Fold Flagellar biosynthesis repressor FlbT.
Amino acid sequence: MPLRVELKPFERIVIGQSVITNSDSRTTFLIDGDAPIMREKDILTAETANTPVKRVYLCVQMMYLQNDIPAYQDLYLGFIKELLEAVPSFHDTIEATSNLILSGQLYKALRELRPLIKREEELLQR
């Protein structure tokens, strides 16, 4: 079943190794295939991954976009160790994320991490 994607004007999306930028009008299209797909709003860069949760998210994002879990496994383990030392209450979500990664469900792992980014921001503002 194809994925239906609607892009706002000038919104970008990553499909596989390509970045697609929309023109000045809203666009809808269908994507059929197995390439990794991420919207611009869900993508972190090395510069924006400046907290423990964001570093974990960026690592999983790279696993997903590169389709290469082993290349980032050691980095991921180091990041989750750092995160759990800082915020032990995130353990259950990190465990669920790790289980999703082990089963190859990388996009779902990213979705699992997104609420932690918001919770971390709230903790940092206190």
Notes: The first helix runs from residue 52 to 66.
